[in-house]
From TrEMBL, chain A:
Homodimer. Residues 34-460 form the Aldehyde dehydrogenase domain. It catalyses: dodecanoate + NADH + 2 H(+) = dodecanal + NAD(+) + H2O; 22-oxodocosanoate + NAD(+) + H2O = docosanedioate + NADH + 2 H(+); (2E)-hexadecenal + NAD(+) + H2O = (E)-hexadec-2-enoate + NADH + 2 H(+); (2E,6E)-farnesal + NAD(+) + H2O = (2E,6E)-farnesoate + NADH + 2 H(+). GO terms for molecular function: 3-chloroallyl aldehyde dehydrogenase activity; farnesal dehydrogenase (NAD+) activity. One of its GO terms (cellular component) is endoplasmic reticulum membrane. The gene is ALDH3A2. The active site is at 246, 280. It comes from Aotus nancymaae. The chain crosses the membrane at residues 503-521. It is a single-pass membrane protein. Belongs to the aldehyde dehydrogenase family. Its main location: endoplasmic reticulum. This is Aldehyde dehydrogenase. Keywords: Endoplasmic reticulum, Fatty acid metabolism, Lipid metabolism, Membrane, Microsome, NAD, Oxidoreductase, Phosphoprotein, Transmembrane, Transmembrane helix. CDD domains: ALDH_F3AB. The lineage of its organism: Eukaryota, Metazoa, Chordata, Craniata, Vertebrata.
From TrEMBL, chain B:
SUPFAM superfamilies: ALDH-like (SSF53720). It is found in: Endoplasmic reticulum membrane; Microsome membrane. The keyword Mitochondrion does not apply. Keywords: Endoplasmic reticulum, Fatty acid metabolism, Lipid metabolism, Membrane, Microsome, NAD, Oxidoreductase, Phosphoprotein, Transmembrane, Transmembrane helix. The keyword rRNA-binding does not apply. Its EC number is 1.2.1.3, 1.2.1.94. Pfam families: Aldedh. Coiled coil: none annotated. This is Aldehyde dehydrogenase family 3 member A2. It is a single-pass membrane protein. One of its GO terms (biological process) is aldehyde metabolic process. GO terms for molecular function: 3-chloroallyl aldehyde dehydrogenase activity; farnesal dehydrogenase (NAD+) activity.
Length: 524, 393
């Protein structure tokens, strides 16, 4: 193992517990435990020093880095697509449309808008501050930690990175170890294009991540599951580090009887089985009236055939489950269920066929956890009221889907439930509009990003009030000794109701005097 | 405790707190409470911090009234869905942000401005359609008591409740699940709050503190600078989260600064500060002792008089302060103003950056941003308005 381009020479050390997962960004196997802890601390310190140098702050530098990132994505497209492809058994075409295209879009959006976003924004003033300068100054937070996920391993790591760079921070990226190839390619490519001290990749498993989380950051963005989300927030609490947690949940999909089932089922099929169900905002389960079940099953079955062909296993557009553990987990959800179609599996290739379950009992396992797989339960409900109650009895999901021609019904469902986001009459799509802040609520997460929201997440919007050293006379009102008349003046300046009446009177008087002066001037 | 929180949650789930009309009604009721019971509220604040009623009014009640009015005026617009900018993909779709309540909000108040720091968040929480549990600080006992007494008389008794108690009760409360926690207080407890919140993935707003530096440039009008600093520092006896904690300036300025602050203190509080109705006291014995200990080994330029019985500490200024001493290691939160001499603004900036990020930063220097002519015009208009208003009033 030589020194990779852009990497530094380090002495090789061998310890008794070497594991392949402990690859640092230079590809050197790190020694175990306490030495490694200090190595982690040193890495974070190095990045912090780089931030303190001030290098990441000028707009020009940020734009350059973003342009370099763009070049990386374009020049090394093949390598990136191959890595994603091998992690998820995804075709390069799909890896492009599902991940790379969003990344390019975000970089372009950032490059176009950043010059405007970095400028101070004046805020609305009140009577008290009328003559002062009052603005919000966006500033970088410092060292940001981005913990990526394995399901869309490229975009879920790089999209936050784009915003963190744009906001002027230094960044430590910890890709998910489950998507090994993408983790490796990121560790290899990023140092070749970006500043090597400001933006680094640290790879590793649970142990390394735990160690990393002991360090101090200025913001942590984590994408993953609820259980680890709590661990991240707990670790962050020790340093009062703000967090953005992009978690998950069971995103319900309500199908009203008043809708076009053909189109509805096609859209749901697309969103559900994309990436083999491993999408944080995939429609997790369906709620509908019992009478619709059979039609829904039929139409989904037809759509699956249309999308993936007769033999789904051979479709280049159908992915696989990320690893054996998740494969077994999803399999166990099928126990005791009525499989309307699908259900075929192959452990060797971690293949699970697009599956639909009907008449699912809400108390069974498949309805107790986020499925994150190509299994679609249908839970019959009497009507929309029952559906709303069903949803509200459970944790707030990351997304909510409702299909209906009845606009009022859609509005009602939105009004009476809570979720991170909503797409009506389709699935997934609210993710694609970056003027939306994308994030969860309750156990599906906190904070949000995408587009400008990423910039804002990784910035401190600092309120600045610049007064002059003149007009000290006006300040007399606030200085001791206090008096009733000073209090009354305070009311005048600070209480709007008070203002409107008195101000109106004042204006009238003022105009009267002006008029009098003008009249007088005329006669002279 | 669990039952209380459950009761509030049930009340929220009833959907009652959500309609705009209800929220406006509750805010109007809150406004009535502040107006009708003004005397009781001012008395409570007054006895907690030895503050005159006039000062309790200007420092706390006036802000609360202002916020309620602002909320009443703007809420009808804020609750509506806001369309967002669309892209090609969504051009023909409806795309908007719908504000919705979070659920049950916990507001943990502070003792230094016990009324406004509890009620101002409450105003917004009500406006957003949530149910609210308020936990006032036990250190400001009288305000905690008056809040527990008055709120149920004016607001919905199941949606907005007050839970009082000390560390034990608060710890118990923090084990429950909330949809947002807003905490005002110190860093150490802030971490505890966030850790407790992490168990339920509850988002938090932490209003903490720090040492807010105050840099005085040599190019400025020291009279005005020192007057403004004196006002902000000794207000509420230094117990303000954004009080100027310490001064950074060139050594040559120290004596003038000390002199001018001394003169301003006399102007504000009179010859005998202890007898000024506008000078407060330290909240309790523990903090009194804490602040006293910060004076050890320091060069007291003026002030330094104390009286433990009344928890009085005179407005104090320390000069040539060594950054390594205790007074520079923690947020002072008292009427002690250290001056740390620095060579120049570069050294001041480094000094600030070597330390934790403070809640506020103050810098005094002549400001050349506003064009002179515009200033003059505005000054004239204002002066005329002032002149007219006196007889009109």
């Amino acid at each position: 193992m030589g020194t990779p381009p852009g990497g530094r020479r380090r002495e090789r050390r061998r310890g008794p517990h070497l594991r392949a997962s402990r690859l640092s960004r230079t590809g050197v196997l790190l020694p175990c435990s306490s030495l490694q802890d200090r190595a982690m601390e040193r890495e974070v310190q190095r990045v912090r020093q780089a931030f303190l140098s001030g290098r990441s702050r000028p707009l020009r530098f940020r734009l350059q880095q973003l342009e370099a990132l763009r070049r990386m994505v374009q020049e090394r497209e093949k390598d990136i697509l191959a890595a994603i492809g091998s992690d998820l058994c995804k075709s390069e075409l799909n890896a492009y449309t599902q991940e790379v295209i969003s990344v390019l879009g975000e970089i372009d959006f950032m490059l176009e808008n950043l010059p405007e976003w970095v400028t101070a924004k004046p805020v609305k003033k009140n009577l008290l501050t009328m003559l002062d300068e009052a603005y919000l100054q966006p500033q970088p937070l410092g060292v940001v930690l981005i913990i990526g996920a394995w399901n869309y391993p490229f975009v879920l790591t790089i999209q936050p990175l784009i915003g963190a760079i744009a906001a002027g921070n230094a960044v430590i990226i910890k890709p998910s170890e489950l998507s090994e190839n993408t983790a490796t390619i990121l560790a290899k490519l990023l140092p070749q294009y970006l500043d090597q001290d400001l933006y680094i990749v640290i790879n590793g498993g649970v142990e390394e991540t735990t160690e990393l989380l002991k360090q101090r950051f200025d913001h942590i963005l984590y994408t993953g599951n609820t259980a680890v989300g709590k661990i991240v927030m707990e670790a962050a609490a020790k340093h009062l580090t703000p967090v953005t947690l992009e978690l998950g949940g069971k995103s319900p999909c309500y199908i009203d009887k008043d809708c076009d089932l053909d189109i509805v089922c096609r859209r749901i099929t697309w969103g559900k089985y994309m990436n083999c169900g491993q999408t944080c905002i995939a429609p997790d389960y369906i709620l509908c009236e019992a009478s619709l079940q059979n039609q829904i099953v039929q139409k989904i079955k037809e759509t699956v055939k249309e999308f993936y062909g007769e033999n789904v296993k051979e479709s280049p557009d159908y992915e696989r489950i990320i690893n054996r553990r998740h494969f077994k987990r999803i399999l166990s959800l099928l126990e005791g269920q009525k499989i309307a179609f699908g259900g075929e599996t192959d452990e060797a290739t971690r293949y699970i066929a697009p599956t639909v379950l009907t008449d699912v009992d809400p108390k069974t396992k498949v309805m107790q956890e986020e499925i994150f797989g190509p299994v679609l339960p249908i839970v019959p409900v009497k009507n929309v009221d029952e559906a709303i109650n069903f949803i509200n009895e459970r944790e707030k999901p990351l997304a909510l889907y409702v299909f209906s021609h009845n606009h009022k019904l859609i509005k009602r469902m939105i009004d009476e439930t809570s979720s991170g986001g909503v797409t009506g009459n389709d699935v997934i799509m609210h993710f694609m509009l970056n003027s939306f802040p994308f994030g969860g609520v309750g156990s599906s997460g906190m904070g949000a990003y995408h587009g400008k929201h990423t910039f804002d997440t990784f910035s401190h919007q600092r309120p600045c009030l610049l007064k002059s050293l003149k007009r000290e006379g006006a300040n007399k009102l606030r200085y001791p000794p206090n008096s009733q008349s000073k209090v009354d003046w305070g009311k005048f300046f600070l209480l709007k109701r008070f203002n409107k009446e008195k101000l109106g009177l004042l204006l009238l008087t003022f105009l009267g005097i002006v008029a009098a002066v003008l009249v007088k001037a005329e006669y002279y | 405790m669990e039952r209380e929180v459950q009761r509030v949650r049930q009340a929220f789930l009833s959907g009652r707190s959500r309609p705009l009309r209800f929220r406006l009604q509750q805010l109007e009721a809150l406004r009535r409470m502040v107006q009708e019971r003004e005397k009781d509220i001012l008395a409570a604040i007054g006895s907690d911090l030895c503050k005159s009623e006039l000062n309790a009014y200007t420092q706390e009640v006036i802000s609360v009234l202002g916020e309620i009015d602002f909320m009443l005026e703007n809420l009808p617009e804020w609750v509506t869905a806001k369309p967002v900018k669309k892209n090609l993909l969504t051009m023909l779709d409806e795309a908007y942000l719908q504000p919705q309540p979070l659920g049950v909000v916990l507001i943990i108040g502070a003792w230094n401005y016990p009324f406004v720091l509890t009620i101002q968040p409450l105003i917004g929480a009500i406006a957003a359609g949530n149910a609210v549990i308020i936990k006032p600080s036990e250190l400001s006992e009288n305000t905690a008591t008056i809040l527990a007494k008055l709120l149920p008389q004016y607001l919905d008794q199941d949606l907005y409740i007050v839970i009082n108690g000390g560390v034990e009760e608060t710890t118990e409360l923090l084990k429950q699940r909330f949809d947002h926690i807003l905490y005002t207080g110190n860093t150490a407890v802030g971490k505890i709050v966030m850790e407790a919140a992490a168990k339920h993935l509850t988002p938090v707003t932490l209003e903490l503190g720090g040492k807010s530096p105050c840099y005085i440039d040599k190019d400025c009008d020291l009279d005005i600078v020192c007057r403004r600093i004196t006002w902000g520092k000794y207000m509420n006896c230094g117990q303000t989260c954004i009080a100027p904690d310490y001064i950074l300036c060139e050594a040559s300025l120290q004596n003038q600064i000390v002199q001018k602050i001394k003169e301003t203190v006399k102007e504000f509080y009179g010859e005998n500060v202890k007898e000024s109705p506008d000078y407060e006291r330290i909240i309790n014995r523990r903090h009194f002792k804490r602040i006293l200990s910060l004076l050890e080994g320091q060069k007291i330029a003026f002030g330094g008089e104390t009286d433990e019985a009344t928890r009085y500490i005179a407005p104090t200024v320390l000069t040539d302060v060594d950054p390594k001493t205790k007074v520079m290691q923690e947020e002072i939160f008292g009427p002690v103003l250290p001056i740390v001499p620095v060579k120049n603004v570069d050294e001041a900036i480094n000094f600030i950056n070597e330390r934790e990020k403070p809640l506020a930063l103050y810098v005094f220097s002549h400001n050349h941003k506003v064009p002179v002519e515009w200033e003059l015009i505005m000054e004239n208009i204002l002066s005329i308005l002032f002149l007219i208003s006196v007889p009109v009033y």
